[in-house]
Structure formats: structure tokens, C-alpha cells
Amino acid sequence: MFRSFLTVGGWTMLSRILGLVRDQLLAAFMGAGALQDAYLVAFRLPNMFRRLFGEGAFNAAFVPLFSSILAKEGESEARFFARRALGLMLVWLTALCVLGEVFMPQILPVIAPGFLREGQQYALAVSLSRITFPYLVLICAAALVAGVLNGLHKFSMAAAAYLAFNVVGIIAILFVSPYMPNVAYAAAWGVTASGVVQLGLLLWSCHKAGFGLMPLVPKFTPRMHLLLKRMVPGLIGSGVGQINLTIDTIIATLLPSGSVSLMYFADRINQLPLGVLGAAAGTTLLPVLTRHLAAGEHEAARAAQNRSIDYVLLLTLPAVAGLLVLAGPIMIVLFGHGSFTEQDALLSARALCAYALGLPAFVMVKVLSPAFFARGDTRTPVYVGIGILVLNLVLNLLLMKPLVYVGPPLASSLAACLNVACLAFLLSRRNALELEAQTKRRLLLTCVASGVMGGGLWALTAVITFPHGLFLRGLWLGAMVLAGAMLYAVLLHLFGLTDFASLVARVRRKLRK
């Protein structure tokens, strides 16, 4: 499982780096204002459906069923089930897409009520949303095909295909913009074009694996009924994070112009560790848990859950410490160029700190949710999710006035912490989560090491001040990140959390192979 975790994490990290380049281009060309806000809202809508219907509810219901059929009845029956599910998804999402295109002027005020104050921004957001909306059909189908590849334990292409989103997006911003009314139109067309490329790559990968997925006409067989039964409650249970982010966006449109942009770029930095660690853990853990539980290996399932918690917190906690200390310099170096001013970057850094506080909770939701889905339980997260949604909305309304654009990120972080607490409590009550003494000890020492590393970094930044000039600032930030990483590595070694000698030996063996 650790090898699969690293495979998915590596590809996801590369995708996030390219995504960072894409976001830097968006910031440089459009800054933080009405144009950027309109584009980000247009992208938020299909992206929310992607998370809910593709990577969220559908995937959470589909992967355990597919893995179980594959293990018990063989490839032929599993392939037939996947083709039928793909046909069902395409019919449903195409109908949803057509409705969205027709009624977009009525939908947009729901997710961006603040745009109604400015007629030009509202009209632009409607046009951009109509361009990006077909992406939801393409990317949700791609998520299903990726789920098939993950069920077959072919994690590389499933993770690598998502690079296309950022590669195509970068090409669109740089080379298509001159032929469009503005950069926002080019970026919007890049979103939809990337969906075509991603789905094509994944279907080709399935074909090469001898698992072609030509969709079948949907029929409501008992298995399709079971799939839908598990999927519907999972819309809330697995998509709480995305729905909360959408609530944040709704609230942000009611705040001063540019608030959506400031929150977005802060969230993009927060998504680097969240996307890499959360996606890697959730993607690899779900089929592993399903396989162990199908075989009646409950102790092995609990051990796999503990290992995932250990892995992600070992890397997430120091990331939180680093982000809290270096938020300002990070945002200035990465985004403080062109139309996105240094002052914009410093304002966005405040939102980044608020998001970073909830980073461990955001990641742990990805780790704990598969424990329910692997057991065929998509109902319990619904009840938790409804409460979390209500709490997040209440916190947003309470914090938006005093904290402005920092309020929604802080509300999401607080809601995510309660979400994790509820999920962990319920799993413990069902004997599905039981932290071993060794795991508890490692987690405590990891917290101490991260805290010491953060304190050391803070002291270092007080001695060596942030310089002027982009080149020097880049060197300064790189040196600080390296110093923090080295200090954390030394602490892990001193605490006995990592045996670097055996780790280096394993890497050398892999390289020789």
C-alpha cells in the first residue's frame, strides 16, 4: 500500500506543481478583482459537481462494488458492471449539463449572489460558466474510469491523467488568449478541453489493460439500484468539503470585490499538501480496505487504516507549521507579480493561515471516509455531513463581518475539525478504528517534532529578514523551506520515527532495479 501511496502522491504532486504554474499565470494576467472572481465562480460550479458526482459520491459507491465484484466474480462481470455504470453516468450528467446550459442565468445568482450588484460581472460569469459546464460530464466519466484503474491496482495512469488539466490550461492561457476577448475566456475553454484530453487518456489506458469500457445503455438492474442507493446519501457524506468551499464562495461574492480571488489563491497553496496526501491516502486506502473486509480480514483493515493515519500526519503536521510561519513570503514569491500586487499577496496570506489551521482535519476526512465506504455505509457520513454543512454556514455568517474574507476559510477549518471528530468517534464505536499504542506514540512525537520545527523556523525568519527583489526572495524562501525540512528530518531521526539508513537502502535497491 505504501508503494501505491507514493505512486499516487508523486503524480499528484507533479500535477499540483503544474497547477501552481497555471495559477501563477491566472494571478499575473487577471490579478485579484472582478474578472478573476467571475472566472473562478464559473470554474467552481463544474468543479463542485466533479467532486460530488465524480470523485465523491459516485466513486465512493462505485469502487467498493467494483472491487468486490472483481474479487468474487472475475474481470468479465466487473467490466460489464463498469460499462453499465458508465452508461448511467453519461446519460444522467449529459441531461444535467443541458439543463445547466439553459438555466445558467437563473443558477448563477444562487452561487454568486453578490454578482447581481454589478451587471457586467454577472453577464461575464454566465458566459464563462456556460463554457466550463460541459467539463463536469467529461471529468466525472474520467473519475469513473480512473476508479476502474484503481480497482485493478493500476494507479499510475489514473493519477497521471490529471496532469492534462493543468497542461492544457497553461497552453490555453499563454497561446489562446490573444484570440479571445480576454484571458478569462481562454482559461474557461482550457478547462473544458482538458476534460476531453483526460477522459481520452484514461479510456486508452483501460483499453491497453485489456479492460475496454464502451458504455452500455443504462438499465436499472439490482446492482445499479444498489449503486444508486449507496450514491445518493454519499453526495453529502463525501462532498462536505466541496460543499463547504462552495458556501465559502457564495459568502465571498457578498464581500468586497476581489475576495473570491484572495481566498482562491490561498486555498491553492493549502491544496498542495491536501491534494497530494489526501488524494493519495483516500485513493489507495479504499480498494485496500474493501479487499481486506471482503476477505474477512478485519485486523488487516484496521492496520491499514492506522498506517494511513500515520503516513499522512507525519507529512501534514510539519506542512501546517511551515505554512503558518511562511504564509506571507510564500504568497509574495509565488503570486505577487503582474496584476496581483504584493499587497494582494499579503492579504491572501491571512486566508492561507486560516485554511492551514484545518489542513490536518481536511486530510483526515479523506482517510476516515473510506472506512465507511468500504463497509458499504454511505448513510452515516450523511448525518454527519448535514450537521457540518449547517455549522459551516452558521460560522460563515458569524465571521464574515468581523473577519471579511478570512472568515469563510476559518469557518471551513473549524467545521472540518468537528467533521473528523465525529467520524473518528463513530468508527471507534463500531470497532472500525482503533489506534495502537505505537501509533499513538508516533502521532504525539510527530506533533512535538512539527511544533519544534515551526518554532525554529520562526526564530530563523526573525534573524534573517525577508529581502527585496524576486530572485533574492526566491532564494530566501527556498533556504527556509530546506532548513525546516532538514530540522524536521533530524527530529524524526532523534525521536526514532524514521530510520533514514534503511530508507536510503530501500531507495538504492529500487534505483538498481
From TrEMBL:
Keywords tagged on the record: Cell inner membrane, Cell membrane, Cell shape, Cell wall biogenesis/degradation, Membrane, Peptidoglycan synthesis, Transmembrane, Transmembrane helix, Transport
Main localization, broad class: membrane
Pathway noted in the entry: Cell wall biogenesis; peptidoglycan biosynthesis
Subcellular location(s) per record: Cell inner membrane; Cell membrane
The keyword Glycoprotein is assigned to this record: no
Pfam families with a match to the protein in the record: MurJ (PF03023)
Topology versus the membrane: Multi-pass membrane protein
Superkingdom of origin: Bacteria
Keyword Glycoprotein attached: no
Family of this protein: Belongs to the MurJ/MviN family.
Function, in words: Involved in peptidoglycan biosynthesis. Transports lipid-linked peptidoglycan precursors from the inner to the outer leaflet of the cytoplasmic membrane.
Protein name: Probable lipid II flippase MurJ
Native organism: Acetobacter cibinongensis
Gene transcribed to yield this protein: murJ
